[in-house]
Design brief:
By secondary structure, the protein is α/β, with parallel strands linked by helices. The chain is built from 7 helices and 7 strands; from the N terminus they run H-E-H-E-E-E-H-E-E-H-E-H-H-H.
Length: 199
């Protein structure tokens, strides 16, 4: 029962600024913004952490949800996340990171608890600042770059015209997955969305 009373922290990983807004690396921001819109919450600067934060509840009498978009740029996301987890007294097991994932094809979503960072600097920073890798990840597949394109350039570029046709639907699904973890639990979310075990 105590766990149910504690808030959840949903972190959208991305980079601040209009020039990054539609990048592949910013799908976390997109999903967090959609969840905020769904629960009628508005983002504003937090007084204790370098992040934009929105607060609300999932459903009537549902758990408190803190939505965060770190403003430190991707590689330093962990500092604001750890500060917010401490400020809101969120157990690390109730922290959810929504992020882009090169190792999953575009159009696929996976959710897992803990594990490695797969070279993702935002996750690496979070793990370091939180002192553990034991938090939930909603992994939004962006696929591998074509040809010899550098992965860093690839994730910092916008989705292709073909990808954009599905993007709104996929961001909607990512928001669904994150909400399902909070309301129904990780295992239910894994079974419901692609029956994924996260690998």
């Amino acid at each position: 029962m105590a766990e149910e009373l504690q808030p959840w922290l949903l972190v959208g990983l991305g980079n601040p600024g209009k020039e990054y807004a539609r990048n592949r690396h910013n799908v976390g921001f997109m999903a967090a913004e959609l969840v905020a819109e769904r629960i009628g919450a508005k983002f504003g600067r937090h007084r204790r952490a370098h992040a934009e934060v929105a607060e609300g509840r999932l459903g009537f009498g549902g758990p408190k949800l803190v939505l965060a978009k770190p403003l430190t740029y991707m590689n330093l996301s962990g500092g604001p996340v750890a500060a917010l987890a401490q400020f809101y007294k969120v157990p690390v097991g109730q922290v959810i990171a929504v992020h882009d994932e090169l190792d999953i094809p575009y159009g696929q979503l996976r959710v897992k608890f803990g594990g490695g960072e797969g070279g993702h600097n935002g996750l690496r920073s979070m793990s370091k600042s939180l002192g553990t890798k034991d938090y939930v990840r909603v992994r939004f597949g962006v696929g591998r770059p074509p040809g010899r394109q550098d992965p860093a350039d690839y994730v910092l570029s916008d989705f292709s015209a073909v990808e954009r046709k599905e993007l709104e639907f996929l961001v909607d699904r990512a928001a669904d997955v994150a909400e399902a973890v909070v309301i129904r639990g990780l295992e239910w979310a894994q079974n419901a969305y692609h029956g994924a075990d996260g690998r």
